[in-house]
Write a structure and sequence with these properties.
With 358 residues, the protein is of the alpha/beta class. It has two domains: 2-231, Metallo-dependent phosphatases (Purple Acid Phosphatase, chain A, domain 2, 4-Layer Sandwich), CATH 3.60.21.10; 245-353, no CATH class. It has helices at residues 23-43, 63-76, 133-136, 166-171, 256-264, 289-296, 319-334, 339-353, and strands at residues 2-7, 48-51, 80-82, 104-106, 111-115, 120-125, 146-152, 176-180, 186-187, 194-197, 213-219, 226-231, 245-249, 272-281, 302-311. Strands 4-3-2-1-11-12 form a six-stranded mixed sheet, covered by helices on one side. A six-stranded mixed sheet has the order 5-6-7-8-10-9, with no helix packed on it. A three-stranded parallel sheet has the order 13-14-15, covered by helices on one side. Helix 1 runs parallel beside helix 2 and helix 7 (319-334) runs antiparallel to helix 8 (339-353). Bound molecules: manganese (II) ion. Manganese (II) ion (MN) is lined by residues 9, 54, 85, 87, 181.
């Protein structure tokens, strides 16, 4: 039995400008995730680590990122296979410029790599070399007992045709196909060939599946590969969130402060959430989403607020506001089919007069 660790899309060196002040801390989190990949690989008894492209976020990442990756790989002492992805393409990959540790197999073009110690052959398919994938992706009948592939590319999806065809996987007769490019883990098993995207080991974009994982794959000759997800990343959604989205009923609140403190209680520096406010807002003070967001953002890694609530009609309180409502009523009586429009315009005006922002 052979056990391998499969990861991809680490994106070391990514700037994360959308995370603002939390960006640098998140870059450190990627480093911890990368180290954890090897710690877990060792703890789980893996004999090989596959990194299916996009180890680096760009060919121009700082030198210290390259040194960090190389030393982490070297210290693991496990055989490691790295292929270029679309973010770190073969012709400009940072590993071209440096000397590599002996346990690292860095594959620049579509190649069949024999690892005789492990009774294994690996068909490596780097991004940018798509024209050769289809012919390379097949079992060698006289070859090693276990044969797998590692590729960086996309399966067909709603967004496009993709660079990998599911039928290649269905007919390749390989024992496992390790994919990189998509940031959430996904099963693409076809027929007898088990095939997975591992996803990134830490959050790269907020809408990926969290917590991020790596895959541990167990291979036995002539048997279907067994795949287990091992949590690696630190970032997470709040409890009760479905794919990162959480509905929150604001009807019971009598003010912004109590709402804020309940929402803050959901958040940690590792929380990623898309929060949808529902129900009726019945408090006297207007609810300003932008202010709410500015107050919550420092308590979490990333937050998005969506308004799906009903504001309670604001009653006029000053002579000016009373005059505005009076005029609205007159207009609405004169044009009954536009009454709801006038009413909404008056409510928006009151909201803005009291410091609300749109
Ligand atoms: Mn990627």
């Amino acid at each position: 039995m052979l056990r391998i660790a499969h990861t991809a899309d680490v994106h070391l060196g990514r700037a994360f400008s959308y995370l603002g002040e939390a960006a640098q801390r998140h870059q450190e989190r990627l480093k911890r995730a990368f180290r954890r990949v090897f710690a877990e690989a060792q703890a789980q008894g893996c004999q090989l680590v596959l990194i299916a492209g996009d180890l680096f976020d760009s060919p121009r990442v700082g030198r210290h990122w390259v040194e960090f990756a190389l030393s982490t790989i070297a210290e693991s002492r496990l055989p490691v296979i790295v292929i270029p992805g679309n973010h770190d393409p073969a012709e400009r990959h940072p590993f071209r410029e440096v000397s590599l540790p002996s346990n690292l197999h860095f594959v620049l073009q579509t190649t069949r790599l024999p690892l005789s110690d492990l009774d294994l052959e690996v068909v490596a398919c780097p991004a940018g070399d798509e024209a050769r994938w289809q012919t390379a992706l097949r079992r060698d009948s006289g070859g090693a007992p276990l044969q797998i592939a590692v590729m960086h590319g996309s399966m067909p999806s709603a967004g496009g045709q993709g660079t990998i065809r599911p039928e290649w996987v269905r007919t390749c007769m390989l024992d496992y196909v390790a994919l990189g490019d998509w940031h959430s883990p996904q099963d693409w098993t076809q027929g007898h060939t088990v095939c997975y995207y591992s996803g990134a080991p830490e959050m790269i974009m907020p809408r990926q599946q969290l917590p991020a994982v790596m895959l541990v794959v167990e291979l036995v000759a002539k048997q279907l590969a067994q795949v287990a997800k091992v949590p690696i990343g630190e970032t997470h959604y709040p409890e009760g969130a479905i794919n990162g989205a959480l509905d929150w009923d604001i009807s019971p609140y009598d003010g912004v402060q109590s709402l804020l403190s309940d929402l803050r209680a959901l958040l940690t520096p590792e929380t990623v959430v898309s929060l949808r406010l529902t129900g009726r807002w019945q408090a006297k003070e207007p609810l300003n989403l932008q202010v709410l967001e500015e107050n919550l953002q420092p308590s979490c890694l990333w937050l998005e607020l969506e308004s799906a609530y009903q504001p309670e009609p604001l009653p006029p309180e000053t002579p000016f506001e009373r005059l505005l409502m009076e005029l609205t009523r007159t207009r609405a009586e004169r044009e009954p089919d536009r009454a709801s429009f006038y009413h909404e315009a008056a409510q928006t005006a009151l909201y803005l007069l009291r410091g609300g922002r749109l």
